[in-house]
């Protein structure tokens, strides 16, 4: 049986480390780079990227 | 035909030949008629066909033999036939198990409600077969071969009417609506669906995504549409018939149905393999209303008071 962690924040991609805590955080200042990192992370984790605004993206598996 | 059956009957060591033969024949015909590979793509496999035809044969024989056995006062035979009929309860279990086993490897699962509904349908079909062959056999014994044919056909027609499924199109109005974004938020019409963080995915959804709005025709339909199993059945059928532009690592392309809490309407978002609106609307309308999801508020006193 496969076990996955769902409905929790798997990763945070942000422009400022002060905005995030509690989950693996990736600090990327450039916006298009941030999109790219989020895309790669979502494909790896098979999770969905959500945009919280203010330069914060999270990856959640539903 | 009639002469042939009579001849067949006279060749047999007992006088119930025509009743058993015709009962078996009509029962089998009923099973074959119900076995058409339907749009849910199940059972599409030759082995599925084979096992259901075989079991159909047994069911037809049980129904056909029961009446002559009763007439001949063969109580042991009657007891055994009832025992055999009990076995068909196992069909539901068999179908449920095999559908559940496939569930893990579906991009869009059927969901427990849909599986239960299919399993129930398959079980019920065997009882229809038994009913048809019994009715035929009664007709032949009581009237004539022609009477048996008529009674068998009537029994099949009655059963078909009785187990007929309502479809989503009967209880819900399906309207086209295109998916659009307000910032990162995906909407279908005015109904919020989800937040999509990746720009690339937003572009793909705007370009290739489809949407629809489901408007329930009454309070019962609203409750049916609220049922998660019913919604899962709708998106499973869409995906199974039209194909889906999605893989495991792109969950943002999963089909979604979300409710508008104010009105009870639901917004549907779907990423088809090929963008084609009309077939999508047609598929949604043809999804069966699941027995377990059917809204029943209007059947109760309190529910009727709650209605305007």
Q: Largest interface, with Cβ-Cβ < 8 Å? A: A-B, 17 and 16 residues
Q: Which sequence of strands runs across the widest sheet of chain B?
A: 1-5-7-6
Indicate the overall shape of chain B: elongated
Low-pLDDT segments of chain A: none
Enumerate how many helices of chain A there are, as a single number: 1
* Tertiary shape of chain A: globular
The largest sheet of chain B is: 4 strands, antiparallel
Q: How many distinct folded domains of chain B? A: 2
List keywords for this structure.
heterodimer; A: alpha+beta; 1 helix; globular; B: 308 residues; alpha+beta; 4-stranded antiparallel sheet; 3-stranded antiparallel sheet; 7 strands; elongated
Question: Could you explain how this protein is built, in words?
Answer:
The complex is a heterodimer of chains A (62) and B (308). The longest helix of chain A is centred in the middle third of the chain and has 15 residues, at 31-45. Chain A is globular, with a radius of gyration of 11 Å. Chain A is an alpha+beta fold and 62 residues long. Chain A has one helix spanning 31-45; strands at residues 9-14, 25-27, 48-53, 56-60. A four-stranded mixed beta sheet of chain A has the order 2-1-4-3, with helices on one face. The mean pLDDT of chain A is 93. Helices cover 24% and strands 32% of the residues of chain A. Chain A has one domain. The longest helix of chain B is centred in the middle third of the chain and has 31 residues, at 112-142. Chain B has two domains: 2-164, no CATH class; 169-306. Chain B has 13 helices and seven strands. The radius of gyration of chain B is 24 Å and the shape is elongated. With 308 residues, chain B is of the alpha+beta class. In chain B, helix 2 (17-34) packs antiparallel against helix 3 (46-71) and helix 5 runs antiparallel to helix 6. Chain B starts with a helix and ends with a helix. Chain A binds chain B through residues 35, 38-39, 42-44, 46-51, 53, 57-58, 61-62, and chain B through 183-184, 194-201, 248-252, 254.
């Amino acid at each position: 049986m496969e076990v996955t962690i769902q409905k929790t924040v798997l990763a945070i991609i942000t422009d400022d480390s002060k905005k995030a805590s509690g989950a693996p955080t990736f600090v990327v200042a450039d916006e298009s780079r941030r999109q790219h990192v989020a895309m790669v992370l979502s494909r790896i984790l098979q999770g969905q990227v959500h945009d919280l605004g203010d330069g914060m993206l999270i990856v959640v598996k539903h | 035909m009639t002469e042939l059956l009579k001849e067949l009957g006279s060749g047999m060591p007992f006088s119930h030949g025509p009743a058993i033969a015709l009962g078996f024949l009509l029962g089998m015909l009923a099973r074959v008629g119900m076995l058409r590979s339907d749009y849910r793509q199940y059972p599409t496999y030759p082995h599925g066909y084979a096992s259901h035809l075989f079991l159909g044969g047994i069911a037809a024989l049980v129904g056909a033999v029961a009446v002559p056995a009763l007439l001949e006062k063969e109580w042991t035979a009657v007891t055994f036939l009832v025992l055999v009929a009990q076995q068909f309860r196992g069909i539901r279990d068999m179908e449920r198990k095999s559908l559940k086993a496939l569930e893990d490897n579906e991009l869009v699962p059927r969901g427990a409600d849909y599986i239960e509904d299919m399993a129930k349908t398959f079980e019920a079909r065997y009882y229809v077969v038994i009913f048809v062959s019994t009715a035929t056999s009664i007709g032949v014994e009581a009237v004539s071969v022609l009477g048996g044919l008529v009674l068998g056909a009537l029994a099949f027609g009655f059963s078909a009417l009785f187990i007929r499924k309502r479809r989503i199109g009967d209880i819900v109005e399906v309207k086209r609506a295109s998916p659009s974004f307000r910032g990162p938020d995906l909407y279908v019409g005015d109904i919020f669906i989800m937040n999509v963080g990746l720009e690339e995915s937003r572009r793909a959804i705007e370009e290739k995504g489809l949407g629809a709005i489901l408007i329930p025709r009454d309070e019962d339909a609203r409750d049916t549409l609220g049922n998660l199993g019913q919604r899962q059945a709708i998106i499973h059928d869409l995906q199974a018939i039209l194909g889906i532009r999605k893989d495991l690592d792109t969950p943002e392309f999963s089909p979604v149905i979300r409710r508008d809490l104010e009105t009870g309407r639901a917004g549907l978002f779907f990423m088809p393999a090929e963008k084609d609106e009309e077939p999508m609307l047609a598929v949604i309308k043809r999804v069966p209303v699941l027995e377990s999801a059917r809204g029943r508020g209007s059947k109760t006193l309190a529910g009727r008071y709650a209605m305007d």
